[in-house]
Amino acid sequence: MTRLVRFAVALILAGASAAALGQPRAPVTLTHLTAPAGIGEYEWGLTIDRILAKQSTWLRQRSQPTQGYIYNLRTAIDGSANWSTMVFNMDPVSPWLASKKQPPFENGMGKLELRALMNATWPVWFLVTQSPEVKSVNDLAGRRVALGPKAGTASLMMEETLKAAGVYDKIRLQHLSFADITNGLLDGTIDVGLANLWMNGANNKIGPTQGMINLQASGKPFRYVVIDRPILEKTRNERGVPYRILRIPNGTMPLQTRELDAYANPDYVAVHKDFPQATAYEYVRLVVRHLDEVNKTGGIASIFTREFLPFGIDNLHPGAVRAYREAGLLKR
Fold first, then answer.
1. What spatial distance separates the first Cα and last Cα of the chain, rounded to whole Å?
2. Whether the predicted pLDDT of 248 surpasses 80
3. CA distance 314 to 320
4. What pLDDT is attached to residue 255?
5. Each residue of 47-83: b (16+ CB within 10 Å) or e?
């Protein structure tokens, strides 16, 4: 045996011995692109940062607030060199835009293939008014209607819904921040505004948003604008918007006085398909085990349950699947 061969064999044996002795894994630091600060996703991302720092010997995370999901997807598509350490919150609408090569995704998804680690949140979207003449979307002609920021997917979904209803070109449309929408509804400078609540899809529990809390606390006669289910189905089936249609029983939400149909865009924590399995497994394993700490973040995170984390996701990363199966949250 030559000296070179003996040296190579020694290296292999040394590596095997180190593995057998449980040599510490090389440290990994993830970058987590969340959502605008104040919504709640960045805040529970920081809690997961702390959980990993405390409970894992090798995995760390640095959560960052971002402009939103379109920004996250654009950054991920352009950031292939970082796919092994990039985690980003995502919705179903941004990839839909990319598949249609609509701006800012003129080149589509590139080589990025999305896989999910866990649900991020299910925002349920509504139009809210206190105008007595406005009962359904058919009554919106000539009304001052405020949607969210123009570049956001929340506004795009409602715009497509109003187009399906045949009223989009008949309204006086404004694009405002969600805080300004709430203020405009309270002071009467807008007639109808886009609002949302958070939902746990596994148990249908609803979590409040600050905007809805403020509207309810005002004591003014705010109510939901009715959007009939056929309009939502037309938006999804004919216009192609990939949202989930929900029927919400009366008494489920604040201000609710009747059964309502609404839509949600189930948002999730995403990675590239080649994201390391060991990293995905460690991440999900520790989130599941310490979910009570995430709940204490409040806001969106207060309604998270173990069952909700993988609920309804059909593109789970294999490392996440392993963690959920071990926790008894997925069938084998």
1. 48
2. yes
3. 12
4. 93
5. bbbebbeeebeebebebbbbebbbbbbebbbebeeeb
Look over the chain and give the mean of its residue pLDDT values, rounded to a whole number. 92
* Cβ partners under 8 Å of residue 130, min gap 6: 185, 220, 221, 222, 223
Residue 57, pLDDT score: 98
Where would I find the H helices in 188-299? 210-217, 229-237, 277-289, 291-295
| Rounded-to-integer distance, Cα 163 and Cα 165, Å | 5
Residue type, 115: R
Question: pLDDT at residue 13 above 60?
Answer: no
- pLDDT value at residue 2: 54
Strands (E), the chain: 28-33, 59-64, 86-90, 114-129, 144-147, 172-175, 192-200, 205-207, 223-224, 244-248, 260-264, 267-272
Residues whose CB falls within 8 Å of the CB of residue 54, separated by 6 or more in sequence, listed in order: none
Q: How many residues does the chain have?
A: 332
Helix axes 277-289, 318-326, angle to 10 degrees: 40
Whole-angstrom distance, CA of residue 286 vs CA of residue 326: 12
Asked if pLDDT for residue 293 goes beyond 70, the answer is yes
Which three-class secondary structure state does DSSP give residue 64? strand
- Is the pLDDT at 184 greater than 50? The verdict is yes
Query: Which domains can be identified in the chain, with CATH numbers?
Result: 26-121+267-326 (3.40.190.10), 123-264 (3.40.190.10)
